[in-house]
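Worked example

This section walks through a single chain of length 393. The input is the sequence exactly as stored; nothing has been trimmed or padded.
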Amino acid sequence: MLATSSQRLAFSLGGSEPGSVSGDGRPFHMNSIATMPIGSGELERRIQLRWPRVLSRIGLTIICLLCVAMLGYFDYVTGSEQSLLLFYLLPISLATWFEGLGFGLLFSAISIVAWIGSDIVAGIPTVRVWNVAMATTAYVVFTFLLHNLRTVMRDLDQRVRDRTQALRREMAERERLDREIAEVANRERLLLGQELHDGVCQHLTGTALTAQTLRQRLAARGAPEVAQADQVVRYIEDGIDMSRNLARGLFSPELEADGLMVALHGLAENMSERSGIRCTFGSNGVISVSDGNVATQLHRIAQEATMNAIKHSQARQVEIRLEESETELRLEVADDGVGLPKIRDGKGLGLRLMQHGAALIGAEFRVEENPDGGTTVLCKVNRNAEAKHEQKA
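Given that input, the structure is written out below as tokens.
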């Protein structure tokens, strides 16, 4: 008894029999529904899913019937003077496009009946069988063609959706690979910088101390090689400075320990000491960057932009500035040099590295000319993008 009630309820909602095909083209089986109890959650869920479909079909049926009724009335009013057979294609098109071939053929038949009925009521003595056959054939052919067009369009839409999903998966995979490559490169940079700082620099420092001791012994003897010993000590000390600067470029202890602001301040001081060019750092407050990868990429962009300004722009002053607002984090590196070259057929490696680093953290990157001369490298990170990037990491 419960199964019979379930079947009747499903028939009233779906309008189909066991083993038939639903309006969206998928097979509809009642066995799985009929065997469930009337109060089961699965049956209620299926009813809720099919109820909007039933309402839309009822609404479409009412609209198409109203169109056929109006056309039949106008056909009755005009009589045999005007033929409205072409206008019956409107309800047929609506039924075929939104509900499929069977629904379209049904309204083709209804339209033929309405046309014949309006002519008979209007007092037209005879309705020729040939005209009815031609109109029926035309409606059926039109319905099949429209149904095939709709099928082709649905297939094309599905292919576009599948291709779009494939592209999204490919882009997500590429972003993941880029992040992994960046992480591996960052680890290698850190290891190389630590090796230079803790290994080579310490070894050169020990060598410098040994050479200084040797120089003192030669001086105590009054040997003429003291000047050469002084020169060896200076060369070793220069090597120590070069190794430390190289290690600092690869590995920033301040960035790991104290954060981005301290690292950028140290970068400005180091560049000023190495190049003799005034390099300053400023900010609009105490700024904390929680995402370590974002901080690392911003530090590298500032480092690369500062090196480019010192080497290529003939700048006398470089300013590194870090600002934040509620929506974005902004890094600027401005100089007072000669500005951008007039012709830039190919982008330099440094510019490509900065663009790639900005892309890894979802930042906006651009290089602008200053109104008073010089160049500004700008990198803006959206706070929402930073939070998403931190979650991915």
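What to look for: The chain has three domains: 2-127, 128-251, 254-393.
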